[in-house]
Design goal:
alpha/beta; 5 helices; about 120 residues
Length: about 120
């Protein structure tokens, strides 16, 4: 999943909700979790959804509303990557990212790498 937008930091990120809906829909129709290999590549405004509660609170005055969903998606096997270029541009530090999140050189690089590894892009 390509996650770029995040308009209301007081609400859940729409892309993360779509990932959860995708997982739930397939699981309810008999697809085992181990057969669903999903990844989220966040850049731009969506990077905010992958911050720790303390980092989100320091920037926006509230805990990250996505924290519980991130934990559940990670427990279901979803991988999370953020764009290193977006981090630099936005002034984010790696320590501000939630624990399951990895930093990639760029979103374009990670999306290309995942597709060459057999992932299908879901924008």
């Amino acid at each position: 999943f390509d996650a770029a937008a995040y308009s209301d930091q007081g609400a859940l990120n729409n892309t993360l909700v779509s990932v959860a809906r995708f997982l739930n829909m397939h699981a309810r129709n008999g697809v085992p979790l181990e057969n669903m290999n999903l990844a989220v590549v966040a850049h731009g405004q969506a990077l905010r959804a992958l911050l720790t509660d303390s980092a989100f609170s320091a920037r926006y005055g509230i805990d990250n509303p996505n924290s519980e969903l991130l934990e559940k998606l990670h427990a279901a096997g979803v991988s999370f990557y953020v764009c290193g270029q977006s981090m630099e541009f936005g002034g984010y530090d790696k320590q501000e990212l939630a624990s399951p999140v990895e930093v990639s050189l760029s979103a374009m690089t990670m999306l290309t790498q995942l597709q060459s590894d057999g992932f299908a892009l879901l924008p």
